[in-house]
Design a protein that fits this description.
There is one protein chain. The chain has 460 residues and is α/β, with parallel strands linked by helices. It has twelve helices and 27 strands. It has helices spanning 26-38, 60-64, 79-86, 149-158, 172-183, 207-215, 261-265, 312-326, 356-361, 411-422, 427-431, 447-459, and strands at residues 2-6, 9-13, 18-22, 43-48, 89-92, 94-100, 105-110, 113-118, 121-124, 128-130, 143-144, 164-168, 187-191, 219-221, 226-231, 235-240, 244-246, 249-252, 256-258, 289-291, 298-299, 306-307, 340-344, 347-353, 366-374, 385-393, 399-406. Strand 12, helix 5 (172-183) and strand 13 form a beta-alpha-beta unit. It starts with a strand and ends with a helix.
């Protein structure tokens, strides 16, 4: 409150409330933009420790591989855009080191100087960070992770000096990076400690992916755990339990974990997954503090259990919901079904809901339909094969999940199942879904309908 005195007259000027957002990624900027749209008078400040906001980390492997020719194209909006067009005060290279909920302040290190900022509302959007397992030699030069734009630039620059690259980890990022490095003309070895790539899918579904990787020159090594990195100052070898691989560089892609240390120190409750625990309105256990994005756990709509599934589209929607609530609205985030897409050279890959393995672990009476179909009518030129697996519960007929791999027609079909999962759809709902047909887009019996028919037969 500011008090001005003019000729014995007191004039009270109320200072605008301030929202501070920690993290300028998708979730943080979505939240800040939503609040600005609804509360024009609010003072909004964003602190981002990197040099970019509102960027697309999912595009980094394609930038490294040369399909995207400039890192600038990964940035949706610049900090200057937010300042000039949306009146959001964005601070780059500014790291929040402490949150004091009782005083409602944050401590920020910016330009080598420390400053304390007051807030009326606080939003935590600190995201996730790459996992760096305690392996001998993990700190050698030449070992890279890929999480933000600066990581992508560093790896891209390193490609000018290296030839042999070992990618450790066969999940989404590992597969995408391996493809990008091959397209950049490098000799690539991909090491995965589990029996198949893409561990969050069933092994019988991803066999075509492994074949596609090998066919395009990736030296794929499964069932091999990395035990050490060796070299002088720079990495020169990757040692597994089975073999030793020469390496001019290593890309570490063994997963990410929620960035929650700042929240934990402030007394913000963490959930059973290790991510920040929030209500459906995305509020933490502390008044006026919200949390969104990859640092937050949510609910799985199939199981009803808490899960941590860090995905960009989820982060953006969380930002929208929390921003609405900070601005005085009342919106809830319902949860997720874990829909995710990727690609490996000419193959599109997608999943939603539970895999067969996950469904069995949750105690469902699992039935599955695994089919191989053509992506177009048999008489129409072009197209290819679609490998589809649908998982259901035999007792209730409830759909549990689906996975698909193919040259086309993958993502639309998995999105169809994702919508049905959100609303508790059953096998018969899938069978009777009024899906479109034309020879260039699929056979008259859509593969999803065929899978549903197989499941109905098992149920009866």
């Amino acid at each position: 409150m500011v008090i001005l005195i003019f000729h014995h007259t007191l004039i009270f000027l109320a200072m605008a409330e301030r929202l501070i957002v920690i993290g300028g990624g998708a979730a943080g900027m979505s939240l800040a933009s939503r609040v600005r749209r609804l509360r024009s008078e609010l003072d909004i400040v964003v602190f981002e420790r990197s040099g970019y906001v509102s960027y697309a980390p999912c595009g980094l492997p394609y930038y490294v591989g040369g399909e995207i020719d400039s890192s600038d194209k990964l940035v949706y909006y610049t900090a200057e855009f937010f300042k000039e067009k949306r009146n959001i005060d964005v601070h780059l290279h500014a790291e929040v080191t402490n949150i004091d909920p009782s005083a409602r302040t944050v401590t920020v290190v910016e330009g080598g100087k420390e400053k304390v900022w007051e807030w009326d509302w606080l939003a935590i959007a600190t995201g996730a960070k790459p996992v760096k397992p305690p392996i001998d030699g993990i700190d050698l030069h030449g070992i890279y992770t890929l999480r933000n734009v600066e990581d992508g630039i560093r790896l891209k620059e390193a490609l000018e000096r290296v030839e042999r690259i070992v990618v450790v980890g066969g999940g989404y990022i590992g597969v995408e990076v391996a493809e990008g490095l091959v397209k950049a003309g490098k000799r690539v070895t991909l090491v995965e400690m589990l029996p198949h790539v893409l561990p969050n899918m069933d092994g019988d579904v991803v066999k075509p992916v492994e074949e596609e990787l090998r066919r395009n020159g990736v030296d794929l090594r499964l069932n091999e755990r990395v035990v050490a990195f060796e070299g002088g100052e720079r990495v020169e070898k990757v040692v597994t339990e089975e073999s030793v691989y020469r390496a001019d560089a290593v890309v570490l892609a063994v997963g990410v974990k929620p960035e929650v240390e700042l929240a934990r120190k402030a007394g913000i409750r963490l959930g059973e997954t290790g991510a920040i625990d929030v209500s459906k309105r995305l509020k933490t256990n502390i008044d006026r503090i919200y949390a969104v994005g990859d640092a937050v756990e949510t609910w799985h709509l199939v199981t009803g259990e808490k899960v941590w599934i860090p995905l960009a589209h989820t982060a953006n929607k969380m930002g929208y919901v929390a921003g609405t609530n900070i601005a005085g609205g009342n919106m809830r985030f319902p949860g997720v079904v874990g829909t995710a897409f990727t690609k490996a050279f000419n193959l599109h890959i997608a999943r939603t809901g539970l895999t067969e393995r996950e469904a069995r672990e949750k105690g469902f009476n699992v039935i599955t339909a695994k089919i191989e179909a053509r992506t177009r009518a048999h008489y129409y030129p072009g197209g290819g094969k679609l490998h589809l697996k649908v998982v259901a519960d035999a007792d209730t007929g409830k759909l549990l999940g689906a996975q698909a791999v193919g040259t086309e027609g993958v993502t639309g079909r998995i999105n169809t199942v994702a919508v049905l999962l959100k609303y508790g759809g059953k096998v018969k709902d899938l069978f009777f879904s009024d899906l479109g047909y034309a020879p260039p887009f699929g056979p008259v019996w859509d593969p999803l309908v065929i899978a549903a028919r197989v499941l109905l037969r098992q149920m009866s």
